[in-house]
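Cross-check.
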Amino acid sequence: TAVLGEGEKDLDDLLRSLMDLDFVILEGFKNIENMARIVVASDEKEAEELGDEFTIGFVGNDKNGENVFELNDVSAIADLVERKSVMYVGGLDCGSCGYSSCREFVLSSVEGKAQTDECEALKGPVYLSIDGKRIPLKPFVKDLISNTITGIVSSLKDTGGNKIEIKVENHER
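Predicted model, tokenized:
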């Protein structure tokens, strides 16, 4: 459990540090974009106010009755989350996934048109983490890091293998 209050750590930083988890449940954040959401509404008016194109379901009430669950219908809600949730995307708007922005990619994923694991900034052979937070990388940066490190390592003796790991600690910037 993590609690993020006003003026505290940035939500993007928190989500990057949790990227290895299958699911993250957030409460509040009704104005956040680029994430699938389930709206818990006390009446149809509230459902209409809170629901948007990122909404995959409603608990309680909804204006049109689609994907509406009772609060105690945990199994059905969990099934919906497994089917329709979208991985956290980097927010780089790099276009490598074929969409013009991360927002468009997430909307397409919510609608079932894109695979939720197609975010190119988070895929591939290069993984950068700073203080436990995964950093999304554009393809050019991934290639640059990969080619540079591979070139350095290949000039060393007895360095066969497919996986290279580098860890830099206490580096002053």
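Residues 42 and 51 are 12 Å apart (CA to CA). The mean pLDDT is 83. Passed to J.P. for a second look.
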